[in-house]
Amino acid sequence: MATKVLSATISTIRALRSANPNGTFTASTDGYSISGRSRTASSSPLVRMGNMRLFDRDAPDGYPETAPPWISAGTLAERIRFVQTTLMASTGDTNKADGISGGNFNLTDPVGLLQKKLPGPNNPAWKDAGAVADFFLAILYPGEGRANLDLYRANAINFLNASDDGQSSSPFSALTPSNAAGTPYDTRVRAMVSMLMTLQRFQEQ
Questions:
Q1: Band of the pLDDT at 1, cuts 50, 70, 90?
Q2: Which of 78, 176, 166 has its CA nearest to residue 127?
């Protein structure tokens, strides 16, 4: 089941990964930023999400295939932590290190992916909350019918049109599209994508 936990982390990166012309990717990892570089749980996301190290099972019977021995409220919370902090936080975010031994080299650029797949310049879809929500829903939930995602879509649009406090209105259409870390547009899109990736349907994939 260690492979189940590992596949959950890899799928979050793969979902947002596309090759750029310069040889980089819109999402990438060095692997160690998932598995950790030391043997302590606090520095390994993979261990925190299920206490399972690859190739390190003491007994020769392998990790259990059933959920109860490895899944709990705590490990599910760690999956959310991985998405929100370890993966989706921008490189300038002070929380991104997340205690990972040797540093965190998981990188994502959701706005760069959006602008690459819906090219500009100044594509009106970039400032359309519905179009941005639809784009990421199609990537993250490719096997779901649109009707099954109506609630997710409504939540994503509401999120994009809310200020950072989550209460007051802040029209997404008024933001200047940018994938520069820390800009309001990049921050809001990152947070929205993070929200979609922590919902139950994505975690069940």
A1: very low
A2: 176
Q: Strand locations in the chain, DSSP E? A: 27-28, 107-108
- Enter the tokens of residue 52: 């399972």
pLDDT tens-digit series, residues 126-161: 999 999 999 999 999 988 888 889 999 999 999 999
Find, among 193, 176, 194, the residue nearest to 185 by Cα: 176
3-state secondary structure of 76: helix
Nearest to 54 by CA among 74, 72, 31: 31
CA distances from 181 to 18, 67, 111, 184, 186 (A): 19, 37, 10, 9, 6
Rounded Cα gap, residues 99 and 108, in angstroms: 18
**Alpha-carbon distances, residue 12 vs 23, 55, 67, 170, 196 (angstroms):** 20, 22, 20, 28, 11
